[in-house]
């Protein structure tokens, strides 16, 4: 037998042997939990703003820095989810959410050159935080693996697409500093910071 | 016999009993529920043949616009149209007959069983625009649900995109897949062809294994059948996948006269889901290129192996079920 075919067959057999029930159709495998994991953050305002701001920030820093987030951010989400599932983490206060949005907005608006390592640490930390928050929706009957896969897939898709979009808005090296594309991204940063400021005010007032 | 063949056989023999679900006992009871329209949209219902354990535990779900409090059923101006479900058949009764008599004295009967727990009621009169819109909404959503929850179908489409890589050829390939699955979906729904679900699901998994192998061949510089005639492969396997799509409609107890419309709307839903998926994959491919995030050479074959391994896992699981049922 061809060695590669043998490897593929062995992998499939191992999967098969490990499974409790090899459900043929995903409907019966409760893939609904996958979509629950994927859609929950996309329907949460804080997640949408933070993920979009992070993607824009990474994309505006260039492809060389940004591409690492394709792996780092979903990994952070899964780590946060696992951490929250294994230990009872306290709920994230709305003020922390607001401050995070404010900081991301300010970083975008000021077009600060963030080193790649720091960007990755920030993305991982944000992933852990949001992963833990999204664990709040886990029900006892939820398939954790499918939920985590859905959450990580959503993180991967959103960050990758927004980074690529931001890259196309990036000011070419030769272009003047006043290039409209750079200004557009910085203006979005200003709006994000304003949203963060408003949310911080609201959470302090309530 | 090689060691590998022996290993597969041993695994199948041990796994088959584990995968077989226990056969639950059936109660030979039948309930008959009658609804008589007293004035437009207003019905009086009663069990003319009561289930063995009474009607209290039966979970009867009416269309969303209807309000049921037996003996009264109020469906307003829309009338009694839409999906009616008995969710817990098998506990108190094995089947139920629902008889609806309109104000004009036309009677329709529907059978609900554990295998077909849902019936779609379109009303006794000529369908109105509202009925068609309701039907479209229900079946377009059902079609989208089916493709988006059917990871096997999506994995096959992903494999095709991987091999054909976009452009005009991809458009032709996806169109061929669509024509193939639409034809067999229609043929199955109308009862012209019929394939047992177990072996069919195994074949669907095998079609993805085939695509996985074709990706590996292409990456090694060989020109496989899919790379040469992608539309032919897509059409052929589309026929197989279409029969699988029909299984989603099989349990809904559709009236013969609404079957063509339901089929059309269901197929539209499947296409919308498929187009959304293809667009997402193409957008991600383009984003990866823009970001320069391409897989290193040593791992280029990894996705193909992942697709192949997962689909082989499905194939073995489905085959074991077929063998266990035989």
Give a structural overview.
- The complex is a heterodimer of chains A (206) and B (326).
- Chain A is built from 9 helices and no strands.
- The longest helix of chain A has 26 residues, at 180-205.
- Chain A has one domain.
- In chain A, 74% of the residues lie in helices and 0% in strands.
- With 206 residues, chain A is mainly alpha-helical.
- In chain A, helix 2 (32-42) packs across helix 8, helix 3 (45-60) packs across helix 8 (144-168) and helix 5 packs antiparallel against helix 8 (144-168).
- Chain B is α+β, with helices and mostly antiparallel strands and 326 residues long.
- In chain B, 55% of the residues lie in helices and 15% in strands.
- Chain B contains 9 helices and 9 strands.
- In chain B, the strands form 2 sheets. In chain B, strands 4-5-2-1-7-8 form a 6-stranded mixed β-sheet, with no helix packed on it. In chain B, strands 3-6-9 form a 3-stranded antiparallel β-sheet.
- Chain B is elongated.
- Mean pLDDT of chain B is 79; it is low at 7-28.
- Classes of the chains: A mainly alpha (206), B alpha+beta (326).
- At the A-B interface, helix 1, helix 4 and helix 8 of A face helix 1, helix 2, helix 5, helix 8 and helix 9 of B.
């Amino acid at each position: 037998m061809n060695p590669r075919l043998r490897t593929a067959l062995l992998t499939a057999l191992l999967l098969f042997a490990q499974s409790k029930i090899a459900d043929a159709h995903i409907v019966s495998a409760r893939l609904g939990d996958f979509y629950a994991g994927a859609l929950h953050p996309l329907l949460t305002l804080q997640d949408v703003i933070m993920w979009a701001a992070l993607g824009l920030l990474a994309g505006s820093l260039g492809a060389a820095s940004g591409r690492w987030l394709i792996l780092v951010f979903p990994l952070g989400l899964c780590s946060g989810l696992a951490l929250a599932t294994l230990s009872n983490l306290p709920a994230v206060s709305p003020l922390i959410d607001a401050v995070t949005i404010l900081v991301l907005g300010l970083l975008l608006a000021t077009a600060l050159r963030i080193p790649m390592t720091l960007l990755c640490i920030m993305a991982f930390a944000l992933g852990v935080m949001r992963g833990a928050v999204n664990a709040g929706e886990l029900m006892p009957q939820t398939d954790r693996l499918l939920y985590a896969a859905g959450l990580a897939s959503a993180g991967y898709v959103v960050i990758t697409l927004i980074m690529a979009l931001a890259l196309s808005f990036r000011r070419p090296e030769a272009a003047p500093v006043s290039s409209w594309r750079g200004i557009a991204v910085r203006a979005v940063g200003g709006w994000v910071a304003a949203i963060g400021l408003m949310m911080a005010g609201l959470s302090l007032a309530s | 016999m090689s060691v590998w063949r022996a290993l597969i056989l041993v695994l199948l023999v041990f796994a088959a009993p584990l995968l077989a679900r226990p056969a639950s006992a059936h109660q030979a009871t039948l309930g008959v529920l009658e609804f008589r329209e007293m004035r437009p949209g207003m019905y009086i219902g009663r069990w003319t043949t009561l289930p063995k354990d009474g009607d209290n535990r039966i979970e009867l779900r009416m269309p969303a616009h209807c309000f049921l409090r037996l003996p009264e059923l109020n469906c307003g101006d829309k009338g009694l149209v839409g999906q009616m479900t008995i969710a817990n058949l098998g506990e108190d009764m094995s089947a139920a007959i629902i008889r609806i008599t309109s104000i004009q004295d036309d009677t329709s009967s529907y059978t609900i069983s554990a295998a077909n727990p849902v019936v779609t009621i379109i009303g006794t009169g000529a369908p109105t625009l509202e009925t068609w819109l309701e039907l479209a909404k229900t079946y377009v959503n059902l079609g989208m649900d089916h493709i988006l929850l059917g990871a096997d179908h999506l994995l096959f489409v992903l494999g095709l995109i991987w091999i054909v890589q976009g452009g005009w050829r991809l458009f032709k390939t996806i169109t061929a897949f669509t024509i193939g699955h639409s034809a067999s979906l229609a043929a199955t729904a109308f009862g012209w062809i019929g394939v047992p679900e177990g072996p069919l699901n195994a074949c669907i998994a095998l079609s993805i294994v085939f695509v996985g192998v074709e990706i590996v061949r292409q990456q090694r510089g060989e020109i496989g059948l899919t790379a040469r005639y992608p539309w032919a492969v897509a059409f052929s396997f589309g026929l197989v996948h279409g029969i699988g799509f029909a299984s989603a409609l099989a349990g809904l107890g559709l009236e013969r006269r609404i079957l063509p419309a339901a089929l059309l709307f269901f197929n539209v839903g499947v296409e919308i889901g498929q187009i959304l998926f293809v667009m997402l994959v193409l957008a991600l491919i383009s984003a990866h290129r823009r970001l320069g995030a391409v897989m290193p050479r040593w791992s280029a074959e990894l996705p193909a192996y992942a697709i192949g391994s997962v689909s082989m896992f499905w194939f073995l699981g489905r085959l074991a079920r077929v063998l266990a049922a035989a």
